[in-house]
Every structure is written in structure tokens, then in C-alpha cells.
Amino acid sequence: MEINKLLKFLVCPNCNSGLTMTNSKKLTCLKCSQNYPIIQNIPILINQKNFDQQEKKQIVWFDKHYSQFENKYHLENWRISMLNRIFKQKFSKKITTYLDIGCGATGYTVIEGAKQNNWLSFGIDISLEAMIKAQRFANDQGVANKTAFIVSSAQNLPFKKDTFDYISAISLLEHLEDDKKTVNQIKNILKKDKFLYICVPNTYLKIWPFIWPFYYFNDLKIGHKRHYSIKNLNKLLNLFTLKRVIYNGHLIKFLQLFLEKTKIINNKLWWKIEEKDINNNQSGVQLNAVYQKK
Ligand SMILES: [Zn+2]
Questions:
Q1: 246-257 per-position pLDDT tens digit
Q2: Distance from the alpha carbon of residue 187 to the mean position of ligand 1, in angstroms
Q3: N or C: which end of the chain has fewer CB within 10 A?
Q4: Mean pLDDT across the stretch 95-103?
């Protein structure tokens, strides 16, 4: 999306006022005069000096992680499965504006939101490395004018109040120091009665104990601050109504991963297992929930 068109959705993450384009390389806040660079058509709407320790650590980790990412756009089965979970909703047809928070280097949620559903799709991530790659993929996939990528912190969302019909936060909340702050901002930029898709790691208490050590080391490696039970999540999202909850990553998923590793699985069997894996049984490692803003 051209920056001029994008501007009407954006605010200064410092003071929530409008922004203006000073020149092709810079946005400036109309109130506090803070400048924000534009790099390769991507607005960098962050103020690094406001970052907490967790954000500083995560930006280094993710820039490194995404710089090693492959340069080809490819939808693996697990991504298609995730998209099905996010997109196949009763309300999907009524969406015009969609945001994925922490969309990563493939930008696949944003790109496919525009491509499959014709939504005006926005993606933010703390990593510039990721946003440059995602934008390149969006160009390649022919959805540059229906998508926008912005470097932003999830704790200071740079969007106007009541902008979005649908927001997703996939594997995001567990990375944040202050998840409540992000939830409050989501509430602010989501329109009334509109929807939020959350995917978080399920609480240790519900999953099989033999998975705990793998889970624990993964948490340390990628900087997870916590896991969630549906009860915790409902408490955090008390200004929303829970509409739907599903779990994935049950024992059968480990069979699928094993078969994938040994390459003795075909596509049909993969999807058969995947279908079985997504259900209401609370022992899955991933908790997915759809909420509606009250
Ligand atoms: Zn400002």
C-alpha cells in the first residue's frame, strides 16, 4: 500500500496523534514532532528508547532468526492449517480491515488475507528484517496494494481507534512483558462487536508431562514469558466475549511430525491427522480462541 493511503490508518505510537509525510523517507507526528523513518516503503513506528528489556532481547533474536529465513514464498501445510483456523469463521465475509500482530517474515497471514479474502490486510512486527521480506513476498504475490507492513511494537500499536474488523495474534502474547497493555490496545483499535483470534501455548498443567522438558527449553530459547490456560486468557481478555475455543498439538500431532521427519507420509494422510488433531480436547499444546469485543 502506498504510504499516502496508509497514513489515514496510522497514529504516532508516542502520543496517538496523526502523522504526516515529511518526505519519502520520513513520517512526522503532527503533535509531538517525533520523526519516524520509512525504509523500503516500510514505516518504522517505534521508539527504541521506550523498549523494555524483553523487547530489546526479542528484536535481536528475531532479526537474526528472520535473516536466515528462505527467500521464497511457500505455504507449508501447517501454515495452510493455521490460515484455515483464522479465516474460516462465520463472520469472515463481513471483514474489510484485518491486522496480524507479529506477522513475521513470510507475512503469510497478511498476504493470504488479501489474496483469499480480499481484506485490506495489515501486518506488524518488531523486526525490520521480517517486514522487508514480507513486503517483497506481497509484491511477488500481487497483493502489494491490498497489504501494508509496518515495524511496530505490539505494546504500542500505531493505529487509529476503531480501525479493524478482525485482528489476529498468533504466538504473540507469550512473548510480551506486558500482555495486558497489548490487549487494551487491541481493544482500542478493534471496532465494536468485532473479532480477535488468539493462539498461545497451552498451560503446562493440561499437556502431557513428557512434553514438559521440550516445552521448557523451547520457551527459554525463543523467549516465552508464560503459557496460558483458557481461564487465564478469559481473565486477561475480560473486555471481550469468548466465542470459540479449540486446541491443536495433541499426541497425534507428534505422530504426524515423526512421519514427516522420516518422510513416510503423503499429503492425504497428513491432512487426515491434522483434522483429527484440531478439536476441543484440552491436552493440545496450542490454545486457539476467538473473542468478540463487547
Ligand atoms: Zn506524537
A1: 999 998 888 888
A2: 20
A3: C
A4: 97
- What per-residue confidence (pLDDT) applies to 217? 84
CA of 87 relative to ligand 1 center, distance in Å = 34
Q: Buried b vs exposed e over 161-197: b needs ≥16 C-beta within 10 Å?
A: eebbbbbbbbbbbbbbeebeebbebbbebbbeebbbb
Looking at the predicted structure, is the pLDDT value of residue 116 above 80? yes
Can you give the length of the chain in residues?
Answer: 294
Distance 238 CA to ligand 1 centre (A): 29
* Domains by residue range for the chain, with CATH: 3-293 (3.40.50.150)
Interaxial angle between packed helices 77-87 and 108-117, expressed in degrees from 0 to 180 and rounded to the nearest 10: 60
Q: Which pLDDT does position 67 carry in this prediction?
A: 75
The whole model's pTM is what?
Answer: 0.93
Ligand 1 midpoint to CA 28 (Å): 8
pLDDT at 112 over 80: yes
Spatial CB neighbours of 292, under 8 Å, sequence gap ≥ 6? 193, 194, 195, 196, 240, 241, 243
- Rounded CA separation 119/195 (Å): 14
The Cα–Cα gap between 182 and 176 comes to: 8
